[in-house]
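Morning F.,

Quick status update on the modeling queue. The single chain you submitted on Monday has been processed. Sequence for confirmation:
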Amino acid sequence: MKKALRIGIFIGILAFSWMFFLLEEELAFYGIYTLIDYRVHEIAALIPMLAIPATVIFLVIEIASIVKKRGDKSSKWLVLLFVCLIVLQSSWFVARADDISTSVTGVVVEVDPAEGIIVIEKAYGEQKILAKLEAPSTFCNMLEVGETYFFTYIHDKDTPHIGRMETFRTVSEP
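Structure tokens below.
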């Protein structure tokens, strides 16, 4: 029973930590630091980097337990569970590995605060191309169609014209 309790507590803490991390990341995107302080946001970034090694340690302990006891069926299921947890947690890093940050000067073509979408026109060499950015409605309400801004946004390397806006600032006229 001690083993089951220990495993249950570990999985509970792991699940709570990931839920807190994902909630905190979403709140940070909207700039809501009144609920969770910015310092906590910075510290919470360690959760994925600590969760995977902790899961690997529990996996190694469980494998060592199987080797000593020679074939406990419940331990084999726990090994499978820990391997699945490692794969799921690692997939978060894999998904983030393709993310690229882009900074560009662009003209606002369309703003939809209800949907949280901003469409900008940016120069790509001699061409003008459109980029569709997801943004908090507070950003959408600050932007004016036809005005030029300097945007920073995150996008997948395969879809550079669809992203998630991080910051913007007005471009001053010379």
